[in-house]
Amino acid sequence: MKHLLSVDQLERGDLEEILEVTDAMVEVSNRAIPKAPALRGRTVVSLFYEDSTRTRLSFDSAAKRLSADTMSFAVSSSSVNKGESIRDTVETIEAMGMDAIVVRHRSSGVPAQIARWTDASVVNAGDGWHQHPTQALLDAYTIRSRFGSLDGRVVAIVGDIRHSRVARSNIEAFTRLGAKVVLVAPPTLLPATLAPWDVEVTEDLDSVLGHVDVCYLLRMQRERMNEALIPSLREYTARFGLDAARADRLGDGALIMHPGPMNRGVEIAGDVAERPNAVVTEQVANGVAVRMAVLFLVLGPGRHALPPTATAIASEPGPQGHDASVAGGRETDTHESEVGA
Ligand code: CP
Protein backbone atom coordinates (compact mmCIF):
# COMPACT_ATOMS: atom_id res chain seq x y z
CA MET A 1 0.00 0.00 0.00
CA LYS A 2 1.68 3.23 -1.14
CA HIS A 3 -1.29 5.55 -0.56
CA LEU A 4 -4.48 5.40 1.48
CA LEU A 5 -7.00 7.46 -0.44
CA SER A 6 -10.29 5.63 -0.01
CA VAL A 7 -11.83 2.60 1.66
CA ASP A 8 -12.70 1.57 -1.90
CA GLN A 9 -9.13 0.43 -2.46
CA LEU A 10 -9.29 -2.01 0.48
CA GLU A 11 -10.69 -5.51 0.20
CA ARG A 12 -11.86 -7.31 3.32
CA GLY A 13 -8.44 -8.95 3.74
CA ASP A 14 -6.70 -5.56 3.55
CA LEU A 15 -9.03 -4.13 6.18
CA GLU A 16 -8.41 -7.10 8.46
CA GLU A 17 -4.65 -6.76 8.01
CA ILE A 18 -4.75 -3.09 9.00
CA LEU A 19 -6.82 -3.95 12.09
CA GLU A 20 -4.31 -6.66 13.03
CA VAL A 21 -1.39 -4.23 12.71
CA THR A 22 -3.46 -1.81 14.83
CA ASP A 23 -3.55 -4.48 17.57
CA ALA A 24 0.24 -4.36 17.61
CA MET A 25 0.20 -0.56 17.68
CA VAL A 26 -2.16 -0.58 20.67
CA GLU A 27 0.35 -2.79 22.42
CA VAL A 28 3.16 -0.34 21.62
CA SER A 29 0.98 2.56 22.80
CA ASN A 30 0.30 0.86 26.14
CA ARG A 31 3.99 0.59 27.00
CA ALA A 32 5.62 2.81 29.61
CA ILE A 33 7.47 4.52 26.77
CA PRO A 34 4.97 4.34 23.91
CA LYS A 35 7.48 4.57 21.12
CA ALA A 36 8.98 2.34 18.45
CA PRO A 37 11.68 3.15 15.91
CA ALA A 38 9.87 1.79 12.85
CA LEU A 39 9.72 5.12 10.97
CA ARG A 40 12.95 6.65 12.20
CA GLY A 41 14.43 8.85 9.49
CA ARG A 42 11.09 9.28 7.75
CA THR A 43 9.25 12.61 7.56
CA VAL A 44 5.47 12.92 7.76
CA VAL A 45 3.85 16.23 6.77
CA SER A 46 0.34 17.25 7.81
CA LEU A 47 -1.33 19.40 5.15
CA PHE A 48 -4.70 20.43 6.54
CA TYR A 49 -6.66 22.96 4.51
CA GLU A 50 -9.71 22.39 6.71
CA ASP A 51 -10.16 22.51 10.49
CA SER A 52 -9.47 19.39 12.54
CA THR A 53 -8.79 18.48 16.14
CA ARG A 54 -8.82 14.67 16.32
CA THR A 55 -7.42 13.70 12.94
CA ARG A 56 -4.57 16.19 12.82
CA LEU A 57 -3.41 15.60 16.39
CA SER A 58 -3.70 11.83 16.16
CA PHE A 59 -1.69 11.60 12.93
CA ASP A 60 0.94 13.79 14.57
CA SER A 61 0.97 11.60 17.67
CA ALA A 62 1.03 8.43 15.56
CA ALA A 63 4.02 9.61 13.53
CA LYS A 64 5.92 10.56 16.69
CA ARG A 65 5.18 7.24 18.40
CA LEU A 66 6.84 5.56 15.42
CA SER A 67 9.80 7.98 15.66
CA ALA A 68 9.13 9.80 12.39
CA ASP A 69 9.98 13.46 12.03
CA THR A 70 6.89 15.61 11.58
CA MET A 71 6.08 18.89 9.87
CA SER A 72 2.73 20.57 10.23
CA PHE A 73 1.46 23.01 7.67
CA ALA A 74 -0.54 25.89 9.08
CA VAL A 75 -2.70 27.19 6.24
CA SER A 76 -3.67 30.29 8.21
CA SER A 77 -0.04 31.46 8.31
CA SER A 78 1.15 30.07 4.99
CA SER A 79 1.68 31.42 1.50
CA VAL A 80 -1.68 29.91 0.56
CA ASN A 81 -2.96 33.28 1.74
CA LYS A 82 -0.79 34.91 -0.95
CA GLY A 83 -2.42 32.76 -3.62
CA GLU A 84 -0.01 29.82 -3.73
CA SER A 85 -1.56 26.80 -5.44
CA ILE A 86 -1.87 23.37 -3.84
CA ARG A 87 0.55 21.96 -6.39
CA ASP A 88 3.20 24.60 -5.68
CA THR A 89 2.73 24.08 -1.95
CA VAL A 90 3.18 20.33 -2.30
CA GLU A 91 6.26 20.70 -4.49
CA THR A 92 7.73 23.21 -2.04
CA ILE A 93 7.28 20.86 0.91
CA GLU A 94 8.55 17.91 -1.13
CA ALA A 95 11.73 19.84 -1.93
CA MET A 96 12.39 20.03 1.82
CA GLY A 97 12.10 16.27 2.02
CA MET A 98 9.01 14.33 2.94
CA ASP A 99 8.03 10.69 2.78
CA ALA A 100 4.32 10.92 3.54
CA ILE A 101 1.77 13.67 3.35
CA VAL A 102 -1.47 13.58 5.29
CA VAL A 103 -4.06 15.72 3.51
CA ARG A 104 -7.40 17.18 4.49
CA HIS A 105 -9.25 19.43 2.08
CA ARG A 106 -12.81 20.64 1.66
CA SER A 107 -12.87 19.47 -1.97
CA SER A 108 -13.34 15.81 -2.88
CA GLY A 109 -10.44 14.34 -4.84
CA VAL A 110 -7.63 16.63 -3.65
CA PRO A 111 -5.62 13.83 -1.94
CA ALA A 112 -5.86 11.69 -5.10
CA GLN A 113 -4.70 14.63 -7.20
CA ILE A 114 -1.75 15.25 -4.86
CA ALA A 115 -0.81 11.57 -5.16
CA ARG A 116 -0.38 12.16 -8.89
CA TRP A 117 2.00 15.08 -8.26
CA THR A 118 4.33 13.61 -5.67
CA ASP A 119 6.48 10.56 -5.06
CA ALA A 120 5.57 10.65 -1.37
CA SER A 121 2.85 8.47 0.11
CA VAL A 122 -0.47 10.29 0.47
CA VAL A 123 -2.98 9.57 3.21
CA ASN A 124 -6.47 11.04 2.92
CA ALA A 125 -7.47 12.68 6.20
CA GLY A 126 -10.87 13.72 4.85
CA ASP A 127 -11.80 15.22 1.47
CA GLY A 128 -15.11 17.00 1.06
CA TRP A 129 -18.09 14.66 1.17
CA HIS A 130 -16.01 11.89 -0.36
CA GLN A 131 -13.93 9.83 2.07
CA HIS A 132 -12.36 9.71 5.54
CA PRO A 133 -10.75 6.27 5.46
CA THR A 134 -8.87 6.38 8.76
CA GLN A 135 -12.10 7.35 10.55
CA ALA A 136 -13.71 4.21 9.11
CA LEU A 137 -10.75 2.12 10.21
CA LEU A 138 -10.79 3.44 13.76
CA ASP A 139 -14.55 2.96 13.96
CA ALA A 140 -14.27 -0.59 12.66
CA TYR A 141 -11.47 -1.22 15.12
CA THR A 142 -13.58 0.09 18.01
CA ILE A 143 -16.51 -2.17 17.10
CA ARG A 144 -14.21 -5.16 16.61
CA SER A 145 -12.58 -4.49 20.02
CA ARG A 146 -15.98 -4.66 21.73
CA PHE A 147 -17.59 -7.51 19.78
CA GLY A 148 -14.61 -9.52 18.46
CA SER A 149 -15.72 -9.02 14.86
CA LEU A 150 -18.15 -7.01 12.75
CA ASP A 151 -19.64 -10.14 11.21
CA GLY A 152 -23.42 -10.12 11.63
CA ARG A 153 -23.44 -6.95 13.72
CA VAL A 154 -26.14 -4.37 12.96
CA VAL A 155 -24.99 -0.76 12.74
CA ALA A 156 -27.43 2.12 12.41
CA ILE A 157 -25.84 5.25 10.94
CA VAL A 158 -28.07 8.18 11.85
CA GLY A 159 -28.21 11.67 10.41
CA ASP A 160 -26.76 13.64 7.55
CA ILE A 161 -25.56 10.80 5.31
CA ARG A 162 -25.69 13.00 2.21
CA HIS A 163 -22.90 15.38 3.23
CA SER A 164 -20.88 12.90 5.26
CA ARG A 165 -17.53 11.49 4.20
CA VAL A 166 -17.58 9.53 7.45
CA ALA A 167 -20.81 7.80 6.44
CA ARG A 168 -19.51 6.94 2.96
CA SER A 169 -16.30 5.47 4.36
CA ASN A 170 -18.01 3.64 7.21
CA ILE A 171 -20.72 2.08 5.05
CA GLU A 172 -18.04 0.58 2.80
CA ALA A 173 -15.78 -0.59 5.62
CA PHE A 174 -18.53 -1.99 7.85
CA THR A 175 -20.30 -3.91 5.08
CA ARG A 176 -17.03 -5.32 3.75
CA LEU A 177 -16.26 -6.57 7.25
CA GLY A 178 -19.61 -8.36 7.45
CA ALA A 179 -21.86 -5.90 9.28
CA LYS A 180 -25.40 -5.01 8.27
CA VAL A 181 -25.82 -1.24 7.92
CA VAL A 182 -29.12 0.60 8.39
CA LEU A 183 -29.22 4.27 7.37
CA VAL A 184 -31.58 6.41 9.44
CA ALA A 185 -32.22 9.83 7.91
CA PRO A 186 -34.84 12.07 6.34
CA PRO A 187 -34.87 11.72 2.52
CA THR A 188 -33.34 15.19 2.12
CA LEU A 189 -30.23 14.06 4.00
CA LEU A 190 -29.67 10.94 1.89
CA PRO A 191 -27.50 10.90 -1.26
CA ALA A 192 -29.25 11.02 -4.63
CA THR A 193 -28.54 7.30 -5.09
CA LEU A 194 -27.80 4.49 -2.66
CA ALA A 195 -27.18 2.06 -5.53
CA PRO A 196 -23.59 1.07 -4.75
CA TRP A 197 -24.40 0.16 -1.15
CA ASP A 198 -25.98 -2.91 0.37
CA VAL A 199 -27.88 -1.05 3.10
CA GLU A 200 -31.36 -0.71 4.54
CA VAL A 201 -32.93 2.73 4.93
CA THR A 202 -35.53 4.07 7.31
CA GLU A 203 -36.78 7.40 8.63
CA ASP A 204 -37.92 5.82 11.88
CA LEU A 205 -35.12 5.81 14.45
CA ASP A 206 -37.40 4.45 17.16
CA SER A 207 -38.14 1.32 15.13
CA VAL A 208 -34.47 0.26 14.92
CA LEU A 209 -33.09 1.09 18.36
CA GLY A 210 -33.96 -2.26 19.93
CA HIS A 211 -32.28 -4.22 17.13
CA VAL A 212 -28.89 -2.56 16.65
CA ASP A 213 -25.47 -3.36 18.08
CA VAL A 214 -24.20 0.13 17.29
CA CYS A 215 -26.03 3.44 17.06
CA TYR A 216 -23.61 5.64 15.10
CA LEU A 217 -24.61 9.31 15.17
CA LEU A 218 -23.37 11.81 12.62
CA ARG A 219 -22.77 15.44 13.29
CA MET A 220 -25.69 17.57 12.15
CA GLN A 221 -23.88 20.04 9.98
CA ARG A 222 -25.32 23.36 11.06
CA GLU A 223 -23.60 25.04 8.12
CA ARG A 224 -26.04 23.16 5.85
CA MET A 225 -29.06 24.68 7.52
CA ASN A 226 -29.29 27.50 4.98
CA GLU A 227 -29.97 24.84 2.32
CA ALA A 228 -33.35 24.19 4.02
CA LEU A 229 -32.85 20.43 3.97
CA ILE A 230 -34.65 20.07 7.28
CA PRO A 231 -37.36 22.33 8.71
CA SER A 232 -35.36 23.19 11.85
CA LEU A 233 -32.72 21.78 14.16
CA ARG A 234 -35.39 21.38 16.83
CA GLU A 235 -37.48 19.17 14.56
CA TYR A 236 -34.40 17.21 13.52
CA THR A 237 -33.53 16.56 17.17
CA ALA A 238 -37.09 15.50 17.94
CA ARG A 239 -37.04 12.85 15.19
CA PHE A 240 -33.39 11.82 14.94
CA GLY A 241 -31.64 12.93 18.13
CA LEU A 242 -30.51 10.27 20.61
CA ASP A 243 -32.01 11.51 23.85
CA ALA A 244 -32.09 9.61 27.16
CA ALA A 245 -35.42 7.89 26.44
CA ARG A 246 -34.18 6.59 23.10
CA ALA A 247 -30.81 5.57 24.52
CA ASP A 248 -32.70 3.53 27.16
CA ARG A 249 -34.29 1.50 24.36
CA LEU A 250 -30.94 0.32 22.99
CA GLY A 251 -30.24 -3.33 23.71
CA ASP A 252 -27.81 -4.51 26.38
CA GLY A 253 -24.25 -3.95 25.23
CA ALA A 254 -25.20 -1.76 22.27
CA LEU A 255 -22.64 0.96 21.61
CA ILE A 256 -23.23 4.66 21.00
CA MET A 257 -20.64 6.08 18.60
CA HIS A 258 -19.93 9.49 17.10
CA PRO A 259 -16.94 10.63 15.01
CA GLY A 260 -16.83 14.02 16.73
CA PRO A 261 -17.05 16.90 17.00
CA MET A 262 -20.42 16.38 18.71
CA ASN A 263 -23.30 18.86 18.79
CA ARG A 264 -24.57 18.04 22.27
CA GLY A 265 -28.29 18.65 22.45
CA VAL A 266 -28.75 18.20 18.69
CA GLU A 267 -27.87 14.70 17.41
CA ILE A 268 -26.95 13.45 20.91
CA ALA A 269 -28.11 14.57 24.34
CA GLY A 270 -25.31 15.75 26.62
CA ASP A 271 -25.93 13.10 29.28
CA VAL A 272 -26.19 10.32 26.68
CA ALA A 273 -22.68 11.17 25.48
CA GLU A 274 -21.46 10.44 29.03
CA ARG A 275 -23.01 6.98 29.34
CA PRO A 276 -20.67 3.99 29.74
CA ASN A 277 -21.78 2.56 26.40
CA ALA A 278 -20.91 5.81 24.58
CA VAL A 279 -17.42 5.07 23.29
CA VAL A 280 -16.53 8.38 21.70
CA THR A 281 -13.25 8.83 23.58
CA GLU A 282 -12.36 5.17 22.95
CA GLN A 283 -12.78 5.92 19.23
CA VAL A 284 -10.36 8.83 19.58
CA ALA A 285 -7.80 6.71 21.43
CA ASN A 286 -8.06 3.97 18.82
CA GLY A 287 -7.54 6.63 16.16
CA VAL A 288 -3.91 7.06 17.19
CA ALA A 289 -3.17 3.33 16.92
CA VAL A 290 -5.00 3.00 13.59
CA ARG A 291 -3.02 5.93 12.17
CA MET A 292 0.22 4.37 13.45
CA ALA A 293 -0.75 1.23 11.54
CA VAL A 294 -1.53 3.17 8.37
CA LEU A 295 1.71 5.17 8.46
CA PHE A 296 3.62 1.98 9.17
CA LEU A 297 1.99 0.22 6.23
CA VAL A 298 2.54 3.03 3.72
CA LEU A 299 6.06 3.96 4.85
CA GLY A 300 7.70 1.36 7.00
CA PRO A 301 8.86 -2.20 6.56
CA GLY A 302 5.14 -3.01 6.70
CA ARG A 303 4.79 -1.68 3.15
CA HIS A 304 6.30 -4.96 1.95
CA ALA A 305 5.49 -7.45 4.72
CA LEU A 306 3.55 -7.26 7.93
CA PRO A 307 5.42 -7.93 11.15
CA PRO A 308 2.79 -9.76 13.16
CA THR A 309 3.49 -8.40 16.62
CA ALA A 310 4.33 -5.24 18.49
CA THR A 311 7.61 -6.87 19.50
CA ALA A 312 8.55 -7.18 15.85
CA ILE A 313 7.61 -3.55 15.18
CA ALA A 314 9.56 -2.33 18.20
CA SER A 315 12.66 -4.28 17.24
CA GLU A 316 12.67 -3.38 13.53
CA PRO A 317 15.62 -1.15 12.77
CA GLY A 318 14.58 2.20 11.32
CA PRO A 319 14.98 2.80 7.60
CA GLN A 320 18.50 4.10 8.23
CA GLY A 321 19.42 0.85 9.94
CA HIS A 322 19.78 2.30 13.44
CA ASP A 323 19.12 0.04 16.35
CA ALA A 324 16.79 2.20 18.38
CA SER A 325 14.58 -0.40 19.95
CA VAL A 326 12.34 0.90 22.71
CA ALA A 327 12.96 -2.40 24.43
CA GLY A 328 16.38 -0.93 25.24
CA GLY A 329 14.69 1.98 26.98
CA ARG A 330 16.10 4.66 24.70
CA GLU A 331 13.78 7.27 23.29
CA THR A 332 14.34 8.26 19.70
CA ASP A 333 14.78 11.85 18.60
CA THR A 334 11.77 13.32 16.89
CA HIS A 335 11.74 16.86 15.64
CA GLU A 336 8.83 18.97 14.60
CA SER A 337 8.98 22.01 12.43
CA GLU A 338 6.28 24.27 11.06
CA VAL A 339 5.98 24.88 7.36
CA GLY A 340 4.21 28.08 6.55
CA ALA A 341 4.53 31.80 7.24
N1 CP B 1 -13.75 12.96 13.29
C1 CP B 1 -12.96 13.93 12.78
O1 CP B 1 -12.51 13.87 11.63
O2 CP B 1 -12.69 14.93 13.65
P1 CP B 1 -11.79 16.22 13.35
O3 CP B 1 -12.52 17.05 12.32
O4 CP B 1 -11.62 16.93 14.66
O5 CP B 1 -10.48 15.74 12.79
- Given this structure, which CATH class of the largest domain is correct? Alpha Beta
Sheet with the most strands? 5 strands, parallel
The CATH architecture of the largest domain is 3-Layer(aba) Sandwich
Bound molecules: phosphoric acid mono(formamide)ester
Q: What would the principal axes of the Cα set say about the shape? A: globular
Overall average residue pLDDT? 89
Per CATH, the superfamily of the largest domain is: Aspartate/ornithine carbamoyltransferase
The domain tally reads: 2
The topology string of helices and strands comes to HEHEHEHEHEHEEHEHHEHHE
Distance between the termini: 33 Å
Q: Helix amount, in percent?
A: 25-40%
**Which secondary-structure class do the elements indicate?**
alpha/beta
Description:
With 341 residues, the chain is of the alpha/beta class. The protein has eleven helices and ten strands. Strands 4-3-1-2-10 form a five-stranded parallel sheet, sandwiched between helices. Strand 1 (43-48), helix 2 (54-65) and strand 2 (69-74) form a beta-alpha-beta unit. The model is unreliable at 317-341 (pLDDT under 50). The structure holds phosphoric acid mono(formamide)ester.
List descriptors.
alpha/beta; 5-stranded parallel β-sheet; binds phosphoric acid mono(formamide)ester; globular; 341 residues; disordered C terminus; Rossmann fold; 11 helices; 2 domains
